[in-house]
Amino acid sequence: MNMEGQVRGGTLEALVERLTVHDQLVDPSYTNTFFLMMHQFTPSPGQVLRLLIGRYNLVCPAALTADEAAIWREQKLVPVRLRVYNALKIWLEHHWTVQDDAILPDLDHFIRTDVAQHQPLLVWRLLDLLERHQQAATRLMLAPDACALGACRSLKRAMVPPSTGARPAPILPKSMVRLHITDVDPLELARQLTLLESHLFLEISPDELIGQACSPGRGAPAPHVRAMTQMSNHMTGWITTSVLSEPDGKRRALMIRHFIKVGERLLALNNFNSLMAVISALNSSTVTRLVKTWNHVATKHRHAFQVLCHAMQNDKNYAAYRTRLRSTAAPCLPFLGLYLTDLTFTEDGNPDMRPGGRLINFDKYLKAGRIIQELQRFQVPYALQPVEALQAYLLDHLGTAVTSPQQLYSMSLAIEPRIPSGNENKLRSMAARARLLDTGKMTLLTVESTAAPLTPLGSMPMDAS
Fold first, then answer.
1. Mean pLDDT of 332-352
2. How many domains does the chain have?
3. The dihedral sign for the CA sequence 355, 359, 361, 366
4. Deepest of 111, 159, 368, 429, by most Cβ within 10 A of its Cβ?
């Protein structure tokens, strides 16, 4: 135990006993972490079930008198059985995975015999949850090609309440024929991007995050994490391509201004993941080197972009963003890459066992569990109305966006060639002075940023200009 009374380590038997202790309240975060991270420190779910059954069927010490035995049953056995019941309910309701399906027959037998006998008024809830998982397991057997993670998640999805409030009417462009991205209102563009990413984010289950399942070549497949990461990368490529595809400097500036406005709307929607893709595109050297283009971007828009960059800057391990996120209510699309980085740091930086090798290092799993549970609290659907035609347009352009850093940089050089060395320093100095805020305290944009470019997980590297 640490100074705050949290469990730091123990044998599996001791951890289960703590889960079902009779003489004090069980911390909900301990219970949730135990089942959330269980497969990382237990050989099999069957072993946990056997320990829980053992706790439920504790044997009264033979040396007790009849009166003492009655007190023991009332003050220990009854509370322990209630704790076991609550533990099973939480396991079935919130943390059951496809890996646990193998013990469904044993669990069914235990619930229908022991629990039904001793807790007849409570057993119906466990039976209801059990039946739902049995039906899901049967469906999975009949469709073996189905995604196991998705099948597991579907049982929980119905329990996630949607965000409250009426869906706002979409802001539709005048025509979807020969549509240009600047024809789409920035707010509606932000809404539809949010819905596309939210669809993937809501499907991410803990199995995709635990044990670095999302790391290349490590752990089990993480289809929704990978799909969301890929969408972020394609979004960055699409925004960059959209800017570079305009042959005229003023049109490129108009495109930059449009995406800055989209970024502001994404921030208002608490969609930090898409916002990071916008920032990564506009803050890449492929775009920032376009001095003549940025000269056409008004100061107020460059200031607005700097505000967005400040919200997501990586100074002090994203301190400003983390502070903002703590006070953000769901629905929200957090920057997924930072969660993955935090999980990797936690899992790689802490041993599985406590010093001596006999006790499970539960402190490690508490830390990882807190990260995952923080992400889960944002998995609430947005109350936004999808526009299928606009989403199809976006998916088509995201799928065909240029993502090769070499190709993008060649496009950048083609529209604004490198400045001859004799004039380069003079033009850079003029451009930097032109980008100072009225207060003179902050540079909005310089030709070469001194800070590392803000990039989402897996986004493409950019050559220096």
1. 96
2. 2
3. negative
4. 368
What is the per-residue pLDDT across 236-274, written as a single tens digit (0 to 9) for each?
999 999 999 999 999 999 999 999 999 999 999 999 999
Radius of gyration (Cα) for the chain, nearest Å? Answer: 27
The Cα–Cα gap between 151 and 149 comes to: 5
CB 280 within 8 A of CB 455: yes
User: Quick one: average pLDDT of 126-152?
Assistant: 79
- Digit-coded pLDDT (tens) for 377-433: 999 999 999 999 999 999 999 999 999 999 999 999 999 998 776 555 555 555 544
Tell whether 128 and 217 lie within a shared domain: no
- What burial letters (b/e) apply to 11-22, b meaning 16+ CB within 10 Å? ebeebbbbbbeb
Dihedral sign for Cα 104, 108, 111, 114, please.
Answer: negative
Q: In degrees rounded to 5, what are phi and psi of residue 333?
A: -115, 95
Q: Note the residue count of the chain.
A: 465
Residue 21 CB partners (closer than 8 Å, separation 6+):
80, 83
* Residues 132 and 64 reside in one and the same domain: yes
Hey, what are 70's tokens? Answer: 């009655």
CA distance 249 to 243: 10
446 Cβ contact partners less than 8 Å away, ≥ 6 residues apart: 288, 428, 431, 432, 435
234: left (phi over 0), alpha (psi -120 to 50) or beta: alpha
pLDDT tens sequence across 15-60: 999 999 999 999 999 999 999 999 999 989 999 999 999 999 999 9
Among 38, 174, 142, 52, which residue's Cα sits nearest to residue 94? 38
**Phi, psi for 436 (deg, rounded to 5):** -80, 140
Q: Is residue 5 part of a domain?
A: no
In a domain, 242, yes or no: yes
